[in-house]
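[User]
Um, tokens okay?
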Amino acid sequence: MSDTDTTETRTDGGIVPPDDETPSWGERKARSQGLARLTYEYFERARREDQDLRQESSYVERDVLGFPTWPHETIRNLALTSFFVGMIIFLAASLPPHIAAPANSGATPAIILPDWYLYWSFGLLKLGPINPDLALLGGQKLMADQTYGVLANLVVVGIIAIVPFLNKGSARRPVEQPFWAAVGMSGVVFAATIAALSIKNLVPMDSHLLFDLTFLLPFVGATITYAVLKAMREGYMFELNRRYYRLRPPK
């Protein structure tokens, strides 16, 4: 029997080593001169191997198994919907909500707040302490604090609107683009801190400290997010490409 007959046929095209031969993250880092060089060599190798496979090989067609909408999916969804609707009706009947006394239209409430999901916008209206004074105007503010807060709302909404046009990548997971993941985390933290600032009278913390943390914590959260995802990115991309070539082997 020839060597060709005794050699086990590999389903990955000979590109990806077996699990027991795959170097660990520490071993791959030790073999390089730095993380930047290792990352470049790895992505260059992945690009070259992907190009060679597309030019020289055709991929195995795989059937996609699924269930029809009727009756499988429909019956399952109806069962789940009926269960949750029944739970809502049960809770509404057993724990009815408390109805307070009618509001007095002739008196102003002690605390006036918007709905909770608008706290961040309400907090932007309280940025008067950072409204700059101009010496050219004799130490007066260029605009009123209320106008400054409305302008801050427009700036924040404008930044959120242009982010999709700035980031046109195809990444599906935060670890694939650590920078934009850090930007998103900073926005989430800022929304939480500015919401806490809007109800500073109810927060058991010094108002000056809360105001400082409102702008400090988003940078801290973004820095931690970027550092963690950047450290995870190399090993993640190596594992992702290894699985990619095993799922799409040449015939």
Notes: The first helix runs from residue 3 to 6. The longest strand covers residues 133-134. Residues 7-58+167-251 form one domain. The two ends are 24 Å apart (CA to CA).
